[in-house]
Design a protein that fits this description.
Distance between the termini: 23 Å
Oligomer: single chain
Strand order of the largest sheet: 3-2-6-11-13-14-15-16
Protein name: CoA-transferase
Number of strands: 17
Helix content: 10-25%
Organism: Methylocystis iwaonis
Shape: globular
């Protein structure tokens, strides 16, 4: 019997729970954690979700296992159809894209993400770019943010390079407020912005003014851990809870979908050692 799970499996389960049954859900390139979360949701509590794969734009594919890259047609196996990229953007602009997953090398307190450039006002490093995230972050009904790199290690010069920052050097994907503090509603965007952020240290939601708020921790992390590794003063829920582990059947499903442990490439070596006890709980079913 499976007695424990890894941090990656905990994060996949937390990402899975953000998906609602009946939503049309899309992820971009490159995150095995998110890909697994979508396939687990489809096979458990959200059988009516529409799953659009990142690289292939296949609709409701059922690959036998996760490949080392999402840009592999094996990930399109069993797809009911494939969208063109322009069709995906049209769906989003029409308000039919229920949820998207986004991340960034910087994520600020309003949920803005930066995948364009570091350094302000002068660029110090060019990043890969948004690949359409700028548009989709405005149009998708809901956004789930994630990063497995919340922890800001101290470098050789004694500095911390925060992933969660007060303000992004460049806003690629729009959160709840722009760089000048204007709310996204001022732009008339269709989407409602980030709903959750999941990191390797905790779970966050967003308050009515759009500011990030810590709502839950892992069994082995503390409020002090989260604050120490965040570049601004955290807001916290009145009662900060504990992230629930996945059920045994979900852990078993993740391991069957990812026999190559591809998702562990997204987890830092230090965090690969973390283990969490599973407890008896109601199975997540359709």
């Amino acid at each position: 019997m499976i007695a424990s799970c890894t941090l990656g499996e905990m994060m996949i389960a937390a990402l899975t729970r953000t998906i609602q049954d009946g939503e049309l859900v899309f992820h971009g390139f490159g995150s095995p954690l998110v890909q697994l979360a979508m396939h687990v949701a489809k096979r458990t509590h959200a059988p009516r979700m529409g799953l659009v794969a990142g690289a292939t734009y296949g609709v409701d594919p059922a690959p036998r296992f996760l490949t080392p890259t999402s840009n592999d047609w094996a990930m399109d196996q069993g797809a009911a159809a494939s969208l063109g990229i322009e069709e995906l953007f049209d769906l989003a602009a029409a308000g039919r894209l229920g949820r998207m997953f986004l991340s960034g090398l910087q994520i600020d307190r309003w949920g803005n993400c930066n995948v364009t450039a570091l350094g302000a006002p002068h660029m110090a490093m060019k990043l890969p770019g948004g690949g359409g995230g700028g548009n989709l972050s405005c149009d998708a009904q809901r956004v789930t943010l994630w990063t497995p790199a919340h922890r800001a290690e101290i470098d050789a010069k004694g500095r911390r390079r925060f992933r969660l920052v007060e303000a992004c050097d460049f806003i690629t994907n729009l959160g709840h407020r722009d760089a000048a503090g204007r709310p996204r509603k001022a732009y008339g965007h269709r989407g409602r912005g980030p709903q959750f952020l999941i990191t390797e240290l905790g779970l966050f939601d967003y308050e009515a003014d759009g500011h990030m708020r810590l709502v839950a921790l892992y069994p082995d992390t503390t409020i002090e851990d989260a604050q120490e590794n965040t570049g601004f003063a955290l807001r916290m829920a009145d009662r900060v809870g504990v992230i629930a582990p996945p059920t045994r059947s979900v852990v078993d499903l993740i391991r069957k979908l990812d026999p190559l442990r591809v998702h562990e490439k997204e987890i830092r070596p230090l965090d690969l050692k973390r283990r969490f006890d599973l407890v008896e709980q109601r199975e997540e079913r359709a």
